[in-house]
Fold:
Amino acid sequence: MDSNLLVRIHSISVMLFLLTYVIKTILLFTSKPMLEKYSRITKVPEMIISTLFLVTGIWLFVMLGGIKTLHIIKLVLVVVSIPLAVIGFKKMRYGLALVSLLLIIGAYGLAEASRNKPFIKAKVELNNEGADPKFAQGALVYHQNCGFCHGADGKKLYRNAKDLSISVFGYDDIQQMVRDGSKGKMPGYSAVLTEEEISSVAQFVQSLKVAPADTTAH
Structure:
């Protein structure tokens, strides 16, 4: 499945999941009979939404092959909030239901905050015997940090990541992009990588470019 479509499905299911929690919490505090009626009516849709929320989230992590620190915290909050919500709404426990809602809101906030945060470095070992030291370092830094979205050959295109094999960016432009990132798309790595690493990874990215096919007739 296309990563952008999967993200859209996940985002919609998250919003519906959060909306359901908000409505049920309000009903718990205002009208328990209405909460019981609402819960009966929405039982199946809620199960579908919850399943989509969890399945698409896991699918995205598998497709991406990486995770961020804030994502780990988010997952913990979601895992903790679900049983609290089940008990809170079933037993009519105000405190548990409210805590569960706050955890879900916190998880959503962390997901938004993680957009421009780097991934945890992948554990990568490359055999670069005989390669230029700077090129070897650039390859390692790339596969540890950039391969999640761009792929080993630069063509993964995860969530519209640029195809590096046909990028028109020059060496200096690549360094700036790695250093500062692109708001809402690519995180900046100035706080993660040294200037030497940024320089070396820019050199490696340039090596991924594929020369245009020679269409000259022979």
Remarks:
- Residues 133-207 form a domain with the Cytochrome Bc1 Complex; Chain D, domain 2 fold (CATH 1.10.760.10).
- DSSP finds eight helices and no strands in the chain.
- The helical segments are 3-30, 32-41, 43-64, 69-90, 94-113, 133-150, 171-180, 195-207.
